[in-house]
Task: structure prediction
Amino acid sequence: MRWLFLLLVVLNVCYYVWHQQEAPLKVKEVAPLSLYKGNQQEIRLLRETGASAPAKRRDECLVVGGDLGQGQLEALRQRLLSLDITALPVLGQLPGAEGRWLKVAAESERLLDQTVLSALSNDFKDLKHKIIFCQGIATGE
Result:
């Protein structure tokens, strides 16, 4: 066991000497940060800009639903209405999403946060939510 330890020590010393004889690495030139900033010259907080929330996504919509039956979808819609969240059923299939879905109105998206979604997931077993492109979605209006 003692010989194995001494062998490992000798190998480590040899590796260290061999590693020190290699050519030193060249220093990489780094462009100054001011070239990357463009017209943004400093970091500003949202409170400093006067905006209280991030800008609304114009071309994206929030949909909730999934593998729910028609009765469960209607119950979900009524539950959302009781929470003052406007949601309309999506007619047809969403691309890349199976099941039945409700499109949440843009002005109601802020009311449907993660805590509300987790509470609804307890009541509706297979409830999912997605953010998708609004263009081409037919709702039951």
